[in-house]
Amino acid sequence: MGTRSLTRVIPVDGNEVLDIDSLKNAKEKDISKHAEKFYIALAKYVKSHTMDGSPKGSLINLYRQYDGHMYGHGLDLADFLKDLKVVNGISSKLKATDKIANGAECLSAQLVSHFKKEAGGFYLMKFKDEVGAYAEEYIYNIYVVSFTLSATNTKFLIHVSVNDVYKDERDPNKYTFYSDVSHFLDDAKGGLKKMSSTF
Questions:
Q1: Residue 24 — very low, low, confident or very high, per pLDDT cuts 50/70/90?
Q2: What is the pLDDT of residue 155?
Q3: Average pLDDT of the segment spanning 159-183
Q4: Residue-wise DSSP of 143-197
């Protein structure tokens, strides 16, 4: 058997994570003032979600049977997410060539369509509340964080966490959190370079 992985897409209400009623009429600089508090809260959310294995609102549970490691599925996933913009409603100002997803649900559908091209290889699985239930070695969580600024203005951030299932809980590299897709892509490419240098 190859290296197996699970990929999940988890919508997160940023207003709720920040424990504030509303960010209405806030400017982007106002959101950035809350960044430290937000990332601490999100890191706790991510760790809790990853450690207990339960989906906590994930829209999909995509199982990949082979090449689930960072320099395989991680790199493929990072390439898919690269330059992707999540929006709330499709504006007429957008170009046909713009790489967008209309919310986390649209991103989930696009992700499945992107990877599932033929029989076998990829499967949509039931959620189980146990890490390793599908003998997965990696779990990739895509967090689509929304901030509602007004009735017509929602901003989105994409974050990724990777759980190396078989690493010991005390290993600092067991859980990796990426606040930016470009850092995730760099790490995945770095893994590919490391693998290439061993041949």
A1: low
A2: 86
A3: 88
A4: EEEEEEEETTEEEEEEEEEEEETTS-TT-TTSEEEESSHHHHHHHHHHHHHHHHH
Structure tokens at 105: 């649900």
Dump pLDDT digits (tens) for 79-110. Answer: 999 999 999 988 888 776 789 999 999 999 99
In sign, the C-alpha dihedral spanning 63, 45, 159, 194 is negative
Q: Residue 31 pLDDT more than 80?
A: no
Neighbours of 197 (CB within 10 A): 7
How far from chain centre, in Å, is Cα 5?
A: 13
* Selected residue with higher pLDDT from 37 and 196: 37
Which helix (H) or strand (E) element contains residue 12?
Answer: strand 5-13
DSSP structure string for 122-144: EEE----SSTTTT--SEEEEEEE
Where do we find the tokens 């709330």? Answer: 88
How far is 108 from 95, CA to CA, in rounded Å?
Answer: 21
126 burial via Cβ count (<10 Å: 0-12, 13-18, 19+)? exposed
CA distance 166 to 10: 22
Distance between CA atoms of residues 59 and 11, nearest Å: 8
Using an 8 Å Cβ cutoff, are 129 and 54 in contact? yes
Determine the average pLDDT of the residues in 31-42: 64
